[in-house]
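Input.
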Amino acid sequence: ALTQRRLSLQQWLAESFIVRDSTGKVADLNLLGSEAEVFNTWIYFEIKLEKPISKYTLENSLFLELPHGRQVNTVQLKTGKTLRTLHFTRNHSRFQL
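Output.
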């Protein structure tokens, strides 16, 4: 059951959390794990990039379709020793990395 749940989470992420290079090629996500509480969920994964990170965009639409429209997704992007925090909303769901 855990494997099926993890697989469905990975599939859901692949549709809602997309990293693309400058040619439009989508990078694969490797799900490491997740934690959930009533109002917060943490999802841990890694992405191996073939090009410098500045050549990629990140699209995050997780829960942004909710009717109240106040959903904010916070992503902490770690590359080497650098940590960057991105905030995604319905009106700003894509960042150039």
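The mean pLDDT is 85.
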